[in-house]
Amino acid sequence: MTYKHIGKNFTPPDIEAKVTGAARYAEDFKREGMVFARLLTSPLPAGRIVNIDYSEALAMEGVVGILTTEDLPQPAPPANPSLASDIITYIGQPILAVAAVTEEIAENAIEKIRIDFERRPFVVDPLDTLVEGGPNPYPTGNTLVRNAADAAAGTTASGTDVGEVKWSRDAINAFRAGQVPEGAPFPEEWAFGDIDAEFAQCTTIVEEPFVTIGQPHHALEPRTGMAYWENGRCYFHGSLQSHTIAVAPLAGMLGIDPANLVFINENTGGGFGGKIFPYPTMAVTGHLARKLNRPVQLRITREEEFYIGSARSGMQGRMKLGLKSNGDVGAVDVIIVGDAGSGGGASNSSAAEHISLMLQPAAMRFRGVTLYTNTTPRGAQRGPGQNEMAAVLAPIFDKAIRQANLDRMAVRRQNAPVSEDLIGPRRGALTSAFFPQAIQMGADMFNWDERQARSGQRNGNKVTGIGLGMGYHSAGASGYDGLCRIGTDGRLYLHTGVGNLGTYSYASVVRTAAEVLKVDWNNCEIVRGNTDLHLPYSTYQAGSNTMFTEVRTNFVAAQDALRKLKEIAAADLGGAADDYDIDGARVFLTSNPDQGMTYAEAAQRAVAMGGEYSGETFPDDLNDVTKRSVQGLAGTGLIGVAKDTRHSGTVPSMTIGFMEIELDLGTGKYDIVDYTAVADCGTIIHPLGFRQSMNGGGVWGVGLSGYERHVYDPQNGLSANVGLYQAKIPTYLDVPLTNNTAGLNIADPQSPMGSRGVGEPSQGCAAAALSSAISDALGGHLFNRAPVTPDMIINHVAQLDHFNTGDLKTNTF
Amino acid sequence: MTPKLTRRRFIKSVIFFGAAASSGAGFYLASAAAQRPAGGVERLVSLNVNGRTRRVDVMPQETLAHTLRYKLGLTGTKLGCNRGECGACTVTVDDVTNYACSTLTHSVKGRQVVTVEGLRAADGTLHAVQQAFIDELSPQCGFCTPGQIMSAVALLKTNPRPTREEARQALSGNLCRCGAYDHYLNGVMRASGQLS
Q1: Going by C-beta distance under 8 Å and a sequence separation of 6 or more, which residues neighbour residue A450?
Q2: Does the distance separating the beta carbons of A270 and B178 come in below 8 Å?
Q3: Helix, strand, or coil here: A212?
Q4: Which residue range is the domain that position B155 belongs to?
Q5: Which of A264, A364, A711, A712 sits a CA distance of 20 to 30 A from B120?
């Protein structure tokens, strides 16, 4: 299909402000009378507060107020509280906030506060709390318990509770040694197929332990916020990935009607899953501003980001994988113990689901345990579960393929999912999949056969490694609202409640409406970033889902506008609506294009006609956020608004990455000589944006498999990482000088423009390709972990592997 | 000739002024300075920022990033770490890149400070690096972009046609968590006329 906008590059309207410094982030906003808040945070990993004396601080000149749990009570665990007192569960946990006329005074005031603590035992390694007799991170246990029925009945607040799960010491010892923990209970379990029968048909079986470690999100913009109240409304300048979907939960945190919250967030300096929804410190900012009746800015430092900024969950696991003689994956049996940190979530099932889709085993069993620890709260981070699994799976899969004397690329292609394949325990359908073609395309671009022949070649101290890996993430949702408006000036106003996390997807998706209504881009204006600008209820901006989900909403909104254009023309000019067509910002009689009206005239007529045409009435099934916005826009033009229907099936976004590295056996360092990646992510809506997602994900993949880790001192529970240099992210010098990326560009039938997102799997395939390449350079050696750092490599070269593996350590070195 | 700012010079300046710069917090209002040790430093100083002379009340321990952001309203200079790790606060001082979070404002008196806001021509035309970064869709979230731009501008001033490798070395003090390195390098190559 030939498109006017889809598949074409464009200049996103916010980019000029980014290169001139005019783009404003939450910390850039000031308000008359604004005061500055600082957090007093816990020095203990576990305990409770016996007494607080802040009288001296409050009496200091310049101090204007203090917010404690007396103002903002701590919710029951495992909810992540804004402020903690009775149950402290990690170092760096906010206890109270002090506001003063300067940050310096607020910090000095914090020094004057006296707190008596009572310590509790703590734990940083999930297996240390899982073992019988091991300490629990919470007073009441170590694992999440879901009480959905109780929540529905109103007997619990959140539907979640903290329970306890323990394994015998024998089971823990076996698991740490890479063996099956016989008799151990698994709160999470699913399976499909006859796993014993399928393993019996496998001619190659590998059994390997694995471990991954948590990683801070490291968004460069810390989660600073500023809030003030006027006439009962809260105006909040925040830093979130999502926008209008965040209004209700943020209003809930502040205890107000969502209609009384104005959320302003035009730019967000990175989120990566750590800022999908409102986070606890936002409640501190809002409540403190209300208590003081003054604007309050709560600035979060880089160091504080390491404690409260969320992090990827670590996994400790074991995998048994069987290949049949023809290269088909017969069966997979995987155990995952996931670290949820303090009140966060693990990603065990998502990790297992990655295997179920990408390897398409005939039978599979997953068993898991999610455990809390006294470490930073864990949350979604770019492809949670799937990407860390991709990193550890690739070398294990390589090992099986090598043992079977098969080709690593060919076996992946042979097992790769197509549209008819299924995913996960429910054997759910896919919207579409063409992944074997993507693998072949990547192999051709990378010149797989020729490169593979270089595997293991030595050049002095350097050895060549060739790797490949696959990334996957479910990349689409549905059921949100779309809203557009043709103004009486004839311009198309594209309203979106999608956040602006930097991928420009907010702009890419609204071009769908411009496409449907055939409007030139210079006659379009995107309306976003401030809920007072009348924005629709849009999807959360995460999980690669915007390109699918919001193309659908913009399509239905534009279709509604198109219908109204034709009906207005028919009402004024005669005939039936179906007799009319559009182009050139006009609606006209198909049989006589001279007979028609401009969009400006149609919008003026919509205002005159009222009703649904100008937004005075609207569909009942819209979200309340959208309803309020339409009411705000009523009478200002022709309104196109609709709620999207539901799609069916998982929306699979998949990538294949190929990597050549040159590994220095003397230093453990390596250079990435070449990186090539291909995506099966539907129609490419915005080519430059697509490349950017693929390349950015590639950098993240290098970080996951090669550098990043969050570690704690097991004696005191202190984080060893409180600066970027201590939790290194890839720099210019750690990634290839150029990347080769491409898209298969085959449309997904359930997206009106054929699109799916790609942000998450673009990391997974690079992480997998790097871990595969490192293993390949070392003759197929398995580290069974991510990241693999240069010290591990030189330890292996020196035959000191006991430093590297053996006890599945996560959160510690 | 004014000596270049170095880490050693910065530390010496801090000691001289008698107060350590905070790594974790900002100091926004000059009124707070009344509570600080005097240190014998002139408070009201003239700064040349983006070609304009500005009179500013500066505390002894104040960093250039804070002066720019909170006293001159130049919020294009970002604070990603406030401790010299990320490069988001990069500005040029006499055409040399400096981390503004680790530069004392008093140390740049009489020198030419340029921030991202000072690159546009008088007629509004964007600097070649700014335009190239737009054309190559270099920024993602944009938070590190001002620093990346200032490093690129400084590079092209001394090396108008750098190789891609030279460009990545020159920008390697600027972190981008979005991972837009490839696009920033494309922008530098385009700005230097080596990419069409």
Answers
A1: none
A2: yes
A3: strand
A4: 128-191
A5: A264
Q: How far is CA A611 from the centre of its chain?
A: 40
Amino acid at A69: T
How far out from the chain centre does Cα A184 lie?
32
Q: What are phi and psi of A459, to 5 degrees?
A: -140, 90
Predicted pLDDT of residue B33: 44
Last residue of a domain, one of A279, A308, A337: A308
- Phi/psi region, residue A133 (left: phi>0; alpha: psi -120 to 50; beta: rest), is left
- Give chain B's length: 196
Do residues B103 and B149 both lie within one domain? no
Q: Which pLDDT value is given to residue A60?
A: 98
Q: How far is CA A421 from the centre of its chain?
A: 25
pLDDT means per 10 residues, chain A with 813 residues, are 94 98 97 98 98 98 98 93 97 98 97 98 97 97 80 59 96 95 96 98 97 94 97 97 97 97 97 96 98 98 94 96 98 97 91 98 97 96 97 98 98 98 95 98 98 97 98 96 98 97 95 98 98 97 94 98 98 98 98 98 98 98 98 98 97 98 98 98 97 98 96 93 92 95 98 96 98 98 95 94 76 84
pTM, two decimal places? 0.95
The distance of B111 to chain A (nearest Cα, Å) reads: 21
SS3 A199: helix
Distances (CA, A) of B138 to A7, A542, B61, B76: 19, 21, 35, 17
Beta strands in A265-344 (DSSP E): 296-298, 315-323, 329-341
Nearest to A765 by CA among A239, A275, A393, A315: A393
Say how far apart CA A387 and CA A408 lie, in whole Å.
19
Whether residues A470 and A374 share a domain: the answer is yes
Distance linking the first and last C-alpha atoms of chain B: 39
Pairing of strands A143-146, A63-67: unpaired
Domain total in chain B: 2
Q: What is the dihedral of CA A276, A281, A283, A289, to 10 degrees?
A: -130
Among A267, A285, A308, the domain-final residue is A308
List CB contacts (< 8 A) between A21 and chain B. 74-77, 115-117, 146
The Cα A573–Cα A576 span in angstroms is 9
A707 part of contact set with chain B, CB < 8 Å: no
Q: Which of residues 166-195 of B touch A (CB under 8 A)?
A: 168-169, 171-172, 174-183, 185
On whether ipTM exceeds 0.90, the answer is yes
d(CA A608, CA A624): 26
- Measured torsion, CA atoms of residues A227, A510, B75, B4, in degrees rounded to the nearest 10: 140
Same domain, A289 and A300: yes
Please tell me the predicted confidence (pLDDT) of residue A758.
96
**B75 contacts in A (CB within 8 Å)?**
21, 24, 27-28
At A134 the three-state DSSP class reads coil
Please report whether residue B36 resides in a domain: no
pLDDT of residue A806: 60
Longest dimension (CA), chain A: 86
Whole-Å CA distances, A600 to A491, A584, A609: 7, 12, 14
CA distance A294 to A32: 9
Asked if A111 has any chain B CB less than 8 Å from its own CB, the reply is: no
Quick one: pLDDT band at residue B26, thresholds 50, 70, 90?
very low
Task: Please say if the pLDDT value at position B5 is more than 90.
Answer: no
Q: Are residues B108 and B134 in the same domain?
A: no
- Per-residue pLDDT, B28: 43
User: What is the model's pLDDT at position A395?
Assistant: 98
Residue with tokens 């997979």: A332
Amino acid identity for residue A644 in this structure: D
Q: Is residue B14 domain-resident?
A: yes
Handedness of CA B54, B59, B60, B63 (dihedral sign): negative
